[in-house]
């Protein structure tokens, strides 16, 4: 038995549970019982003596607890003296339970103690096993779309569709009405007014006469952004009237179809913070870049008050590309434990999502940690398959 893990509270708790022996019988009752048992007979009955083990067991437990308690207390006092001596000699003030009193040191302490907490928000290839991904763009209060990825177990897909491989349009028709966007801090935007269909790899939106999507440039911008995020697996979105003829959008002024190509989805991912403090990673107002080097460099610069750079304070890096691999080399050794772990993850995932738009993986160099939060920095990290993971339960608010 390892006595080092016993403490005073635990020992007191166990001792308090030991039954107390208390005989409430009178002298007369005891005498009658002794007579009945033949104690005063000349020749006692020949039967096996009854041994009451309970008092012996209690006594043995008491001895055992005392044997544990004394060394434990002695060791505790000795450890406390050593800690006190160490603190006095080093000049560092340590708070209760060894937590530093200095604020900066406390932050480092918390960062180290939270190792193992999964702060990842993107969806990775290994998380798709046994699941189907439903992508949708949620309309923000800043006239933009925040892409989210809802992970749905395959058994739910089979239950809802009677098959294993519904298209994104089919999933949109079923799941968009179930999504409580306001509970997530977004505008109540979905499902779209009119009818969504698909044909030949294209999405067709049949719009009603007085639809709200082109009443102003901001409305049209939100509309296009949500379509792009929701139907990213398609090549194009066409707009039609109720007679299935091309619909001319007022803000465009001519026949128009929304192209969804690789070039139109090559973004830098920034941090978007809701009013309730929840944060998402999203494109910075749909700004696109011709190559991944420019997109990675753009991550360093805040260009507006809505989207925040994910790059940690005083961190700089260089970018190089070798075929399908982006190498991010930090100019100074980067100790991730020196930063808020959520913000550190936002930087790492912001870079991964940015590279994913160019279908490239990322290899980080000059990070102090070899492994962190499920990532192995000794090799290229997996390419995310979607940003802002949400559980299937968000679709259960019908």
Q: What descriptors fit this protein?
A:
4-stranded mixed beta sheet; 398 residues; 3-stranded mixed beta sheet; extended; 15 strands; alpha+beta
What would your notes on this structure say?
The structure is a single chain. With 398 residues, the protein is α+β, with helices and mostly antiparallel strands. Helix content is 30%, strand content 21%. The protein has helices spanning 8-16, 27-36, 54-90, 103-113, 154-161, 168-175, 217-230, 292-298, 341-356; strands at 131-139, 145-153, 195-199, 202-206, 236-240, 257-259, 267-273, 279-288, 307-308, 317-322, 325-334, 361-367, 371-372, 375-376, 389-391. It has a 4-stranded mixed beta sheet, covered by helices on one side. The longest helix is centred in the first third of the chain and has 37 residues, at 54-90.
Task: Provide the β-strand percentage band.
Answer: 15-25%
Contiguous runs where pLDDT drops below 50 for at least 5 residues: 1-6, 44-56, 68-99, 108-116
Count, helices: 9
Spell out the helices and strands N to C. Answer: HHHHEEHHEEHEEEEHEEEHEEEE
Cross-sheet strand order for the largest sheet:
3-4-5-6
Looking at how many chains there are and whether they match, the oligomeric state comes to single chain
Major sheet description: 4 strands, mixed
- What is the end-to-end distance? 55 Å
Average of per-residue pLDDT values: 83
Shape: extended
Helix amount: 25-40%
Radius of gyration, CA atoms, in whole angstroms: 34 Å
| Helix/sheet category | alpha+beta
The count of strands amounts to 15
């Amino acid at each position: 038995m390892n006595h080092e893990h016993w403490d005073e509270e635990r020992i007191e708790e166990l001792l308090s549970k030991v039954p107390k022996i208390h005989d409430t019988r009178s002298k007369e009752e005891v005498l009658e019982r002794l007579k009945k048992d033949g104690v005063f007979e000349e020749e006692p009955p020949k039967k096996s003596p009854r041994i009451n083990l309970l008092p012996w067991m209690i006594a043995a437990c008491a001895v055992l607890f005392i044997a544990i308690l004394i060394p434990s207390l002695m060791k505790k006092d000795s450890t406390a003296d050593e800690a006190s001596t160490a603190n006095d000699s080093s000049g560092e003030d340590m708070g209760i339970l060894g937590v530093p009193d200095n604020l900066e040191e406390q932050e480092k302490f918390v960062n180290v103690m939270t190792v193992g907490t999964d702060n990842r928000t993107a969806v990775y290839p290994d998380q798709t096993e046994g699941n189907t991904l439903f992508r949708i763009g949620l309309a923000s209060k800043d006239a933009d779309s925040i892409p989210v990825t809802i992970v749905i177990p395959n058994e739910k897909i089979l239950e809802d569709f009677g098959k294993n491989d519904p298209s994104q349009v089919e999933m949109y028709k079923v799941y968009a009405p179930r999504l409580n966007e306001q509970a997530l801090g977004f505008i109540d935007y979905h499902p779209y007014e009119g009818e969504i269909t698909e044909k030949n790899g294209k999405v067709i939106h049949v719009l009603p006469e007085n639809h709200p999507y082109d009443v102003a440039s901001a409305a049209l911008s939100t509309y296009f952004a949500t379509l792009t995020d929701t139907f990213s697996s398609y090549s194009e979105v066409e707009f039609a009237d109720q007679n299935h003829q091309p619909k001319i959008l007022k803000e465009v002024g001519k026949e128009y179809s929304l192209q969804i190509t690789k070039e139109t989805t090559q973004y830098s991912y920034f941090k978007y913070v809701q009013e309730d403090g929840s944060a998402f990673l999203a494109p910075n107002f749909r700004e696109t870049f011709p190559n991944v080097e420019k997109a990675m460099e753009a991550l360093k610069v805040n260009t507006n008050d809505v989207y925040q750079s994910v790059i940690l304070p005083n961190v700089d890096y260089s970018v190089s590309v070798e075929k399908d691999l982006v190498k991010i080399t930090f100019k100074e050794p980067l100790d991730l434990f020196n930063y808020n772990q959520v913000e550190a993850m936002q930087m790492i995932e912001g870079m991964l999502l940015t590279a994913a738009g160019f279908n490239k993986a990322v290899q980080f160099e000059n990070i102090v940690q070899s492994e962190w939060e499920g990532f192995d920095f000794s090799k290229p990290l997996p390419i995310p398959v979607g940003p802002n993971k949400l559980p299937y339960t968000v679709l259960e608010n019908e």
